[in-house]
Amino acid sequence: MKSTHTKRKQRSVIPGRGLTMGVTITMLSLLILIPLASILTYSFRLSFSEFIELITRQNVVRAFRTSISCALIAALINSVFGLILAWVLVRYDFPGERLMDAMIELPFALPTAVAGITLSKMYSDKGLIGQFFAKYDISISYTKIGLTIALVFIGIPFVVRALQPVIEKLPPSLEESSAMLGASRSYTFRRVILPELTPALLTGFGLALARGIGEYGSVIYISGNSEKNGTQVVSYVIMQKLNSGSADYEGAAAIALVLLIISFLLLFFINMVQLAAGRRAS
Amino acid sequence: MYVQLNHITKKFEDYEAAKDVSLGVEEGRMAALLGPSGSGKTTLLRIIAGLEQQDSGDVLIDGKVVNDVPAGERGIGFVFQNYALFRYMTVYENIAFGLRVQKRKKEEIDARVMELVHLVGLDGLERRYPNQLSGGQRQRVAFARALAPEPSLLLLDEPFAAIDAKVRKELRLWLKNMISQVGITSIFVTHDQDEAVEVADEILVINEGRLEQAGAPIDIYKNPKTSFVAQFIGSSAVLSDFRGLKGFEDVPAGRQAVVRPEFVEAFKSDNEKFKSLIADTESGVITNIAFRGSYLELTLDVNGIQLTTNRSLERRPVHVGNPMCVLIYRAYILDGENTRIYENRRLEGVDVESL
Amino acid sequence: MKNQKKSIVPTLLIGISVVFFVVMLVLPLVIVLYRSLKDGLALYVKAITAPNTLSALRVTLIAASIAVLVNTFFGLCAAWLITKFEFRGRQVLSTLIDIPFSISPVIAGLAFIMTFGRMGWATPFIDWINSTFGTDIALVFSVPGVVLATIFVTFPFISRELIPVMQAQGNAEEEAAAMMGAKGFTIFRKVTFPHIRWTLLYGIILCAARAIGEFGAVYAVSKTRGQTFTLTLEVDALYMAGGADSITQAFAVSSLLVIIAVAILLIKQVVEYRAKRTEEA
């Protein structure tokens, strides 16, 4: 019998493929991709040498150095405290545990500007915490220390939320078998538990770092934005170029492009970590 | 033929699930698509259902080509592996779903659902949710749900896979009776030959995307047409060297052969019943004895060839290391893709059946 | 850690956690409330009923509601597409959707300025629409601009929550419904939706929280206080004005946002609990 059809498209019984594909791609393009592409086209108005000149200016390089180093330190601090917090929340019962669990995400829910002005006042030389340090001639607000503290605040939920589900799923038999084999608790932690948590920890670290490098609202008040002290962050420099009398769009676009590339690299890194972890688990 | 597949092919990226498959199932029959996992049997079922689209070839139901008829309009009831019951609906709502989609009248739906609830023996459980049911009860709901819109064809994907071994046997019988009671043409997929043999009127053996053999269970068992079928059906030993075995001297060199446990007889040298045949036996040694519940499975070493046979518990006890006389009645000789039965030449004229 | 000899480790770890938690997360909240009421209730009331504050509240609510609506619609479509169908580029698509999550909000604002701003390449097109239809659409330095920037930064929030849940769910129930002849929207409404309703609500809450709190992106595209400012921009404006009263007012407005944030966290906790329970059931 002759086949009654020639070639057929892959079709699913579940409806809506064409519709959702259309909606998803249209909205993604209009709202995200096309606007982002504008940054690219704007940067291309510059010649290559102009582009290099713009992004290697001293204040720009300094801002990148500040953003990256402070975000890196904050992400490292968060990895340590995030691990402790996640462990404590999953493994121990204590009064106020559920409140703590709920409030961990405060930095997600609290507007960054509010966090920014509050931290800035709290750590200023007259502030609730700042005054203790002021006695020893240590300023926190309007320095890189303050900036880093703001980034710790912003980044902590990323690490905790990445780790929590993984710790929950760790089979107790893992620790038990290690203990049965005579391992000490610290040895068990280092050699058995930590390797299990590494992918999640790296994901949390990467997300906190990505967020920290691009952060604006929470850092601009506490950092002081002084070019001299090196407390300007990249986002601030971009915003400054937009707001200056003769808005320097090309300059802003060039810096933004570099920042975008860094973000994409981090996003790629996080995806790789998750892919690798998924492969190992299967 | 009520259901017919003509030259179906289907490829998933680099996996060929169906390679030019043609088969048919007659009206009112219960057919089993039997094959190992990855053989493509589930894909064929899903193609019949319209859940998957073949790359080429035709699907005919009741003589009509249904290639372009959407799954929901082919008039097929489908029982999914793990049942895919709607977890957020009660038993009643699950069974009523297909009728509601067809916008039947409320009284009609109610009557039909209650009829089915009664038929599958779930009276009183209509208000339960799927997670409040046992595995067997869920299967009954899935069955009732598939039958509710009065389909003309019922497809079941590994209907017993999600049920524990103990209940499985009981449910097989239940399902077989239920389907013959309803009288609906059915096709089910399974990897379990016992299941296929017990439930189906007809078995379609599928391997690597091809139909190996189709026929009644007894035909498949007695006359395996391909080497795959010979090896897959029944628990068989595959021999690659036959030379030297008494009665099989004529087998051409290099041919493989399949020997089923039923083809092998083992007895002690002082056995009265087989006395006359001792000259035709090989001597072997018991290397392993496994208790299979109602019989013993003996593994025998015959000049380096491993054979298995089943031994009734009623017979004399045997032990590992015992020397035995081993008689091979027949074997399937594999000749390329085909097989043929080769009877032990020395037993010609002996009435083996009466032993 | 059950059945083990008493160890100092849990106490120590809990201690560290509590100190970190109080200093980093609780104290800032207390400070906002304290500073907002420092100069008396009268100033507080004055601050939160000032015309600029009310206008900012209005813009914030408009932007957040539209962002939630748009992203809910998008999130459902994208999650359906990604979890129900196999197609080439599926992984790339799901990564692209997540972009706004990892880039600076300032870049989001910048992107819209460069598309629709004075020098933006889409501006002639908008001008053409305006002159042809006699409309007066402005997509930057306007409320629509604020809305667009808010949608951008909250874009992936709902799809991100839905995708893993729908993936874990599988497609069997939808296929079963389709087998019985159910059509697209019926399948979604009767079969899929009951599984995802709590997750969807959870995503909506996260999206709303982020939309209300967004600062960097809207800062770039909003310039007119009292018209296009959101609450966070109003806080910034009051704080940057620098006077003692004005700073107190900034904290007063902040306290509104703090209350919203805490309320959202509490609702979220309840929803999360429900979502977990239905998932387990």
Report on the structure:
The complex is a heterotrimer of chains A (282), B (355) and C (281). Chain A has 282 residues and is mainly α. Chain A has a domain at 65-233: MetI-like fold (Orthogonal Bundle). Chain A contains 13 helices and no strands. The mean pLDDT of chain B is 88. With 355 residues, chain B is α+β, with helices and mostly antiparallel strands. In chain B, strands 6-7-8-3-9-10 form a six-stranded mixed sheet, with helices on both faces. In chain B, strands 13-17-14-15-16 form a five-stranded antiparallel sheet, with no helix packed on it. Chain B has two domains: 3-232, Rossmann fold, CATH 3.40.50.300; 237-354, OB fold (Dihydrolipoamide Acetyltransferase, E2P) (Beta Barrel), CATH 2.40.50.140. With 281 residues, chain C is mostly helical. Chain C folds into two domains: 1-37; 40-280, MetI-like (MetI-like fold, Orthogonal Bundle), CATH 1.10.3720.10. In chain C, helix 3 (51-84) packs parallel to helix 9 (157-169) and helix 10 (172-179) runs antiparallel to helix 11 (184-213). The mean pLDDT of chain C is 88. At the A-C interface, helix 1, helix 3, helix 4, helix 5 and helix 6 of A face helix 1, helix 3, helix 4, helix 5 and helix 6 of C.
For the sheet with most strands of chain B, the description reads: 6 strands, mixed
**Strand content range of chain B:** 25-35%
Number of strands of chain A: 0
Structural class of chain B: alpha+beta
The CATH topology of the largest domain in chain B corresponds to Rossmann fold
Largest interface: A-C, 88 and 100 residues
Superfamily (CATH H level) name of the largest domain in chain B: P-loop containing nucleotide triphosphate hydrolases
